[in-house]
Each structure stands twice: as structure tokens, then as C-alpha cells.
Design a protein that fits this description.
2 copies of one chain form a homodimer.
Chain A lengths: L1 H10 L1 H12 L11 H16 L4 E5 L6 E6 L8 E7 L19 E3 L2 E3 L7 H16 L7 E7 L7 H6 L4 H4 L3 E5 L10 E6 L1 E10 L5 E2 H4 L6 H10 L22 H4 L8 H5 L15 H6 L3 E10 L8 E2 L2 E10 L5 H15 L5 E6 L6 E2 L5 H14 L4 E5 L5 H9 L2 E5 L14 E3 H19 L2
């Protein structure tokens, strides 16, 4: 079956890449208002493209950038429905000077296309669409109904799409839900992801004077807001790497051994970190490094600043200090509850008299889904056929906040997957995507659809 | 006696201010190489000025900006010698947009002259010189020899002057040594300063990856260098505000009650901090706030940074983190020893595998001198006559690193004083100096010289 798609791809390679590169050329940077026009042009182009292979489309207005919805319900109401989640927005390109070719002029080099969005998510989106186009081109009957939800705000928190989910509930109903925005474990090792951690964020600022003070004239009697904040934050962990905030672990889901045993616990996180020359590793005591990333919540410092940070020295008691914290959450932890535990803790630990400002984020919940669902089994089967090796089942320490919401609204079995690799440099300069992997992605999607169609 | 000087000042007010403002017009910013010419022009102008009232001068080359030396030894070798320390360099003017008038165009407003250096130290320097000029103009015999050491690198650490002290030892020998670079306790409350804390600085940087990492993909197993550094630094103090670094207090001089009882312990540090709306105060347990600032060493955070610090949120494990620390030291604490204690402590507290870089500063010692020296008594007497109120004797939590070195080389009794006020905004935009205070400063110096001369 795969051979037929392979042949079609070979016969139409030039057209496929011409279209893909046209898609990559839109500077669809969602975070930058200056690119609003590019966003709309990109969504419009994609809408027309979908219509060339049998999809009916709608451009959904949101509070931000529009979501492109497409459907091909030709299989009929008694057949199952598969929903894909993809996104057409990309990250900013800074620092521009580190790019070897212009980020929105796709350039092929050593078998890879280099461009912003090459993999995240335009590349993953486009091989998915190309697979659906192949069914149309080959006049192969779709044995399932297919829905596409291609949003424009994944890189900026998906607020727009989140805001219209209720209104679009019926449209998004499905039996199977594939999120194609994930990585493989290695060039030859496909994987499907069956759980994600949630997230919540908090910014804390402290101020104890209108301006920076002379550290000689004031040091010893004025509370230093850098020291006060550092002290309050640093006791949020004990020596074992456990979070000390009362109640933090109260609702942490504990898994049955059987629930977890299907996952690939032989993945070595140190291998994942090797490209970045990481020297020091530590997880929560009582858990492996991988467990600490996959099934345990963490609290991390994402940024901090206070006082003078340039070269040399400025002997001041800083006027203010700031720390940005975030938690990755596991199922059953409520982001709002966790935030209020952190806020309470900080208020108790920071000295009286100091001005404290807390800025609380929105947050989203973690989730885990069965490794034994029909979708999981069939997606793994497709990958195994294409890559000729067993497909690993993994969890993920990261978060796509919209996914649990979409999963709930769709009512579908969920699998998250993709053929990205850390080395593709998503979000970084010279983001790239191997064209051979693009083709394998195409084949995998085609085969998933075939299998779900009953072939 | 004061009346004679008062009258002379009144008779020559215009000339005095013309000269003072000419001095203020030089953009003698020592830290900025672009102002090298201004520095030299300023020193040259001042050299000529000294020669108009009987001083012999030398411009001493240093590794940086020159020091202007002047002497009037007409009193003869059997009379005592008084050395003044002053400086002609000033702080940078940034942020320029916050100035209401150009910083190097002295502007008189509501009885104050506004200019960079108005008080620090050109103002304090110039009333001192004007007092010496008055002796010459009034044909009053100097009963003491006077030496002037007017340096050009006070604002950048005095390395140049420090480097030539040994070579200039003989020239700098004196019986009395006045440093005119200090503040009063209030508009009507003169004070003399008889001790200063020393200083030492250290920058610590940690790195655990080549780039910032995704906090979802890596959070839980990669050591976060912000968290590691915060944790190591925050345990440098206990809950009582005491520094926990082993050995930190070992050489802290403990004073006899009698040694300290002359000092003005009724000064309220909260009053000093009031203009800056400070809300939280704390000192070392077992000591008053003022003791914590004057006679106890402190360790402070002067700056810190890590990761993303802009608006919104970026969920990363930062690649690196940085903290700037400094200690204010008391007599008998050796800056080098203290630095090595801190470095040892940090090395033990930071996790293995993380890259740690320590950048150690030079440092200088603290010092305290007798409130009962002849110079202290006579300076206080002069202030009491001019201000018609008792003069307080105080210590100072800050540091002028060159002063203990100069005191040692000169072999003289030391008093530090001046008529600055915190509200003059030294180092800040719109630095100013009240002209009435300028005149009082002039009278005080004239009277000190008279008293030391035996009148």
C-alpha cells in the first residue's frame, strides 16, 4: 500500500516542494502585529490549497489570528472521523544575523530545507496535507471522515482558538484526534506521545526603595529585595529536589504500574540533553530522571533580575528584584490551585514592609491517555511499517495548552506525534527539516488514514 | 575671626562663583575615554588656579588620569602639616534626558547651582581651595603647611593614585589629613566621619548548557543554573541576618564600649532612608540598625540575572545565571581572605557538573580612627563655630578605598568630612549644591586652618 504513495510522491516531487516552499514563504509570525497581513495571506493561501483536494473550508475568526477549519466528510455519518491539529504560525526569526539564508526564502542544503517553520509546524502540517491530497489525486476512497483544525496562535498560547471552542464544539467532534507537532526519538526511531504535562506561570517582583541605594550607606539596615526574594524562592525546594510548598503534591496522580509499563522508560534523558553540552543532571529523589520529566511536576526558575548586571561592579542595594517561575503540572493538579499555593507561600516568606507584586498566568492541565487506544495502536502500526522498526510510546514533559481542551471538546482518542528532531532547531536560527523525513512523514500519515479506513 | 572671611567672601562673591562655575564646566568624566582631553584640561586649569594663591604644584602622571599635587610650606619645617584629599573627576551624566539643564553648564536655581560635580567633589573641592585663597588674599599668615592631593580617578577606584603612593611617600607626609568628600547629617547638623568600612566584590557565573533549554522538555532532569545559584547564595545568611560563611566574622574587630561611646548613636538610619521610601528594615541580630551599618560587616547582592526577564513569559531552563556580591568589611577583616572564604563556600554549595566562574575584585580594608585626636577635636570646633551647634562624630558604612592607603602613607591623623547632603543627588541627574552651604563649607575650612594654625 505504501508503495503506491511512494510512487505518487516521486512522480509529483517538484510540485509538492513548490507548494511547500510557497507555504514557507509567508512570514506568518503570530506574536508580531507587523505580520498581521502575512498571517491572513498565509491562512488564505492554505484555505485555497485545501480546496484543491476535496476539503470544504471555513476561516474561523478569533480574538487573535483566525483558525483554518477544513473537512472532508465524504465517508459518511456511519464512518469514524479523524481530527488533525496543526498550526500555520511560526516563531520570530531573531537573531536574524545568525541565519545563513533569509528565513522566509526556503533554501535546500544537504537534503534539508532551511526556513523558519521548516519543521515547526509548516513542514509537519504540509506533509500531512500532502498525504490527504494524495488520496484525492489517486482517487482513493477515504474510509473515514477527516477534519483539519489549523490554528494561527500556537506559538503565542492559543487564546483565540480556546475562546471559540465552545462555539465550534459540533464541528470539532471526532473519534480520533491526531496532533502532528511532535518529535521522533531519533532519525530512525519513531514515537507516539500519549501524555503531556500542564503548565502554570508566575512573575514575582519586590521593591523596597524608589531608586537603587548606595550599598555602603544603606547596606546592613535596608532590606535588600534581591536577597529577600532569592531567600524566599530558594526554599521552595528541599535538598532532595522536592518542592516544599505545602499542598503542592496533594493532587499529583499516582499511576498504577500497569498504566505506565507500556511507555519507553529506556529513553535516556542525558542523550536528549547531549547536543547542548549539559553537565549537571538532577531529578526528584525517588524517581528516575525520565520519571522526573514525564510524570512528576516541577517548579523552575525561568528568569531573574535585580540591580546592576553589566560588566565591572556597581555597589548598590537594588531598588527591586524579579523572578519568573513556572510549574509543569501532571494530571489532577489544578493550575489555579497551584498558583494560589505558591502565592501564599511567597507572601509568608517575604519580609513585611517590602512591596510585592504577583502576576499570575493562566495555565493548563496535564493529561495522559491510554497507550492501548485504537488510535495509538494503529498510529504505531503505520510508523512501524514506514520506518521498519518498532514504534516507541512516550510521554512528554512539555505542554501544548490547547491540546487537552481540544481533546475534551472533540471527545476523541488522542495521539500526539510527528517526525521532528531536536536537531531541526525549532524556534532557533537556521531551522531545517530533512526532505527524506518529510517524505516519511507523508507516508506515515497516508498509512494511518488507510489503516483507520480499514485497509 | 569668621567675620573677616565672611566679609571677604561677600566682597568677592562674583569672582568666586565665576571661577567655581568655570571649574564645573569641564566634562571631567574619568570613566569615559572620550573625555580624556577634558580631564587634562580640567587638571591644567586647576593647577594654574592653585598657583594664583601661593601654591607650588606638580601634575603627577599615573597609570590613568593625573593627580594634581599642591603645597604651600611657607609655615616652615617646625610647623605641622595638613594634607587635603579632593578629586576633580566626576560621574557620567546618563540619563541625560533627566537633566533640566545641561550638566556642564552650571545653572543657579533657587539658591542652588545645578551641574554634574556641583557637590561631588568639585563643589567641596572648590570651597576648600577658596578658603586657602582667602588666606592669601587677606595676607593672613598660614600657621601650618598645607598640602593638596586632588586626584582624577576617585569615581573609578583610584588605581592610578594607588600605584604611585609609594613613590610619592615623602611628598604626602603630614600630621593632619582631611578628606573633604562627605555629608552632613542634615542642613543644620555638621558631622565629622572617623571610620569607614572596607569593601570586596565577587561575580559568580554558572552555566549548564550552551543555550537556553525548553523547560518542558528538560525541566525535571537538567540542573537549572538559576535555581542552583540562588540556592547556594541564599544560604549565605541565616534567619538572623548573620553571614553563615565559615570564618567570615573571625577577624571582626570588637570594640570597647569606651571606643564607641563618642559616636552619635542617636542617628536614625530610617531618617536617612526616608527620601527613598524604604519600607523594610533589618540588621544583624544583636546589633542596632546603625551598628549594622557602621561597625558590622555585611554581605549584599548587588545584581543578579538569568534567563528571560522581559515582559510576558518564556518557559526556559536558562543556560546560565549570574550574581554579583559585595561585602562591606570592618577593621581587621582582610578583603583577600574574605574572598577566598566566599569562593570556598560557593564551590561547596554549587552542584558538581555545572560550570562555575568566579571573578574576584581587589578590595580594600575598613578603618576607624580616634574621636579624640587633635584634628577631630579641632575640626569639630570649627564646625560648631560656623554652624552654631554641636558637631556630631559619626562612622560611615561606605568606602573610599584610597583613603586608608593615603592615611597610612601620610602618617597623619585622619578626619573625613564635608557639607554634602543626600538630597544633593550626587551621581544622579540634576546634582546640585546650595550656595549658602558652599559658603558655610568655605568658612569651616578657613576656620579649621586657623585653629590648627593656633589662632
Amino acid at each position: 500500500m505504501i508503495d503506491q504513495f511512494k510512487q505518487w510522491f516521486a512522480d509529483h516531487r517538484d510540485t509538492i516542494y513548490d507548494d511547500f516552499f510557497a507555504f514557507l514563504k509567508f512570514a506568518s509570525i503570530s506574536t508580531d502585529p507587523a505580520h498581521k497581513k502575512d498571517m491572513l495571506a498565509c491562512a488564505g493561501w492554505l484555505q485555497k490549497y485545501l480546496e484543491t483536494f476535496g476539503f470544504q473550508t471555513e476561516l474561523w475568526e478569533t480574538s487573535g489570528h483566525p483558525t483554518l477549519y477544513g473537512e472532508n466528510l465524504s465517508a459518511g455519518p456511519d464512518r469514524p472521523t479523524l481530527l488533525f491539529y496543526l498550526h500555520y504560525d511560526v516563531q520570530p526569526v531573531t537573531p536574524l544575523e545568525e541565519w545563513n539564508s533569509p528565513p522566509f526564502e526556503p533554501t535546500v542544503k544537504e537534503g534539508k530545507v532551511v526556513a523558519r517553520g521548516a519543521v515547526d509546524n509548516k513542514g509537519q502540517c504540509f506533509y500531512t496535507l500532502t498525504a490527504l491530497k494524495a488520496f484525492h489525486a489517486l482517487s482513493k476512497k477515504l474510509g473515514i471522515n477527516v477534519k483539519l483544525c489549523i490554528e494561527g496562535e500556537e506559538e503565542i498560547g492559543s487564546e483565540g482558538l480556546s475562546g471559540i471552542l465552545d462555539a465550534k464544539k459540533e464541528k470539532l467532534k471526532a473519534d480520533y484526534f491526531l496532533v502532528i507537532d511532535f518529535d521522533m526519538l531519533g532519525e530512525k526511531q519513531p514515537a507516539i506521545t500519549l501524555g503531556m504535562r500542564g503548565i502554570t506561570t508566575i512573575n514575582i517582583s519586590c521593591r523596597n526603595s524608589t531608586v537603587d541605594l548606595h550599598s555602603g550607606s544603606f547596606g546592613g539596615f535596608v532590606v535588600n529585595p534581591a536577597r529577600a526574594l532569592m531567600r524566599a524562592v530558594s526554599v521552595m525546594w528541599d535538598d532532595e529536589g522536592k518542592v516544599t510548598i505545602p499542598g503542592f503534591y496533594d493532587k499529583v496522580k499516582s499511576f498504577q504500574k500497569e498504566e505506565l509499563e507500556e511507555f519507553a522508560w529506556d529513553v535516556d534523558p542525558k542523550d536528549l540533553a547531549a547536543p547542548f553540552k549539559v553537565g549537571a543532571f538532577a531529578g526528584e529523589s525517588g524517581y528516575s530522571l525520565l520519571e522526573s520529566n514525564w510524570i512528576r511536576p516541577v517548579l523552575e526558575i525561568n528568569g531573574m533580575s535585580s540591580g546592576y548586571t553589566g560588566s565591572g561592579f556597581k555597589t548598590i542595594i537594588p531598588a527591586k528584584s524579579m523572578v519568573k517561575l513556572s510549574c509543569r503540572l501532571v494530571p489532577d493538579q489544578d493550575p489555579k490551585e497551584i498558583l494560589s499555593l505558591i502565592a501564599d507561600f511567597l507572601k509568608k516568606k517575604l519580609p513585611a514592609g517590602i512591596d510585592v507584586e504577583l502576576e499570575l498566568g493562566h495555565g493548563s492541565r496535564g493529561m495522559i491517555t491510554s497507550p492501548h487506544s485504537k488510535l495509538a495502536e494503529m498510529t504505531a502500526q503505520a510508523f512501524e511499517e514506514v520506518f521498519q522498526t518498532s514504534c516507541k510510546k512516550v510521554l512528554c514533559g512539555a505542554t501544548i495548552p490547547i491540546v487537552p481542551e481540544l481533546a475534551k471538546v472533540s471527545g476523541a482518542e488522542l495521539v500526539m506525534t510527528g517526525v521532528g528532531l531536536a536537531e531541526d532547531g525549532m524556534h532557533a536560527p537556521n531551522e531545517s527539516f530533512g526532505l527524506e523525513r518529510f517524505e516519511k512523514g507523508f507516508l506515515s500519515i497516508a498509512r494511518i488514514v488507510e489503516i483507520l479506513s480499514g485497509e
